[in-house]
Design a protein that fits this description.
Layout: E1 4-8, H1 15-19, H2 22-25, E2 30-35, E3 39-41, H3 46-51, E4 60-62, H4 63-68, E5 73-76, E6 79-83, E7 88-91, E8 96-98, E9 101-104, H5 114-117, E10 122-124, H6 129-142, E11 147-152, H7 156-171, E12 176-183, H8 192-203, E13 207-211, E14 215-219, E15 222-225, E16 230-231, E17 235-238, H9 247-250, E18 261-263, E19 275-277, E20 282-284, H10 293-312, E21 327-330, E22 336-340, E23 343-347, H11 348-365
Parallel strand pairs: 1-2, 1-9, 2-5, 9-19, 10-17, 11-12, 11-17, 12-13, 18-20
Antiparallel strand pairs: 3-4, 6-7, 7-8, 14-15, 15-16, 21-22, 22-23
Amino acid sequence: MGKHLVIVGAGHAHLTVLKNLKEFTNSGHDVTVVSTSSLHYYSGMGPGMLSGIYRPDEIRFNVKKLSEDRGAAFVEDKVVKVMPDERKLELQSGNQISYDAISLNTGSFVPLAEPLRAHKSVVTVKPIENLLKANRKIIEILKTQDLKATVIGGGPTGVEVSGNLERLVRNESGRCRITLVAGTRLLPQFKAGVRQRVLKSLGGRNVQVMEGVRMSAIKDGDVELSDGTVLKNDIIFMAIGVKPSRLFEDSGLPTGPDGGMLVNQFLQSVTHPEIFGGGDCISFEPRPLAKVGVYAVRQNPILLHNLLSTLNGHELQQFVPQKSVLLALNMGDGTAIVDWHSMVWGGRLGFAMKDYIDRKFMRAFQVSGELG
């Protein structure tokens, strides 16, 4: 007798599962895909969409069509609670869905207090669709005036947004003041060579990088810094890091230090073997994982195998994270800065490599007729 699998979220870790849904339906199982949107944007190419390097349809997947064409039901809704003892999901609409097994890939969000989020000039870097809205807003502003912009956050996303923002303004023949407020230090977890290349790239394009200061408040679109500096803005990008939603804590599921669902080496809840997860929303019990898309992509085949095995009564496979992660920062000017093992390099060849990897990933899942 067939069972019911529910896939929650269409993030990077679920794409192989979604593309191979027929393996579940052909085995007699029912599948429901729940996602907050029928389209999913690939975060690795998000800053490039901000600058116009990529069109929106080049970096997104049509999740609804991908699901329905493979025999699954698609529900556009948000899961607000998991009820593991009842094996049910509660949706924002008030509806409930029963399951025999579920996999959660609900991503992460920028943890910003509602009063700050409410400012009309503030743009959080997630969801990625926000960068498309920002692109359109900036183009409108530049038609009548110079742009004043601040990026809060000295991590990789803040760096990429700053570089691609400068490209967008230049492409629109506009002028701008772009300030990257990096906090204590720009890219504190990265090699000195990466920092030096980033500072040289941004500085050469008149993007001011401020280290040793933090945002203390936003008032009427002005960013107030810890050293008393006040920056006036038309737009403020918040790239202050991400964390999982409260879904798992609210559901009483074991979580890691960051609130992500605690999973074992099989990407399986440590207390409920029928619950799986991947990507930014999990906390990997064997060792902490950085919230980078590379891990989520590598979790794809493991989740596919383990979900099929759970439904069909077969053995599970372990997820073994790679020890080294390739980092390639899209600087927005046709170059990328690459950090791989002990090597730091960059330039146009670096961007060509990143662009090739990203486009190859998209081609693997944007099957014919499914562009959004």
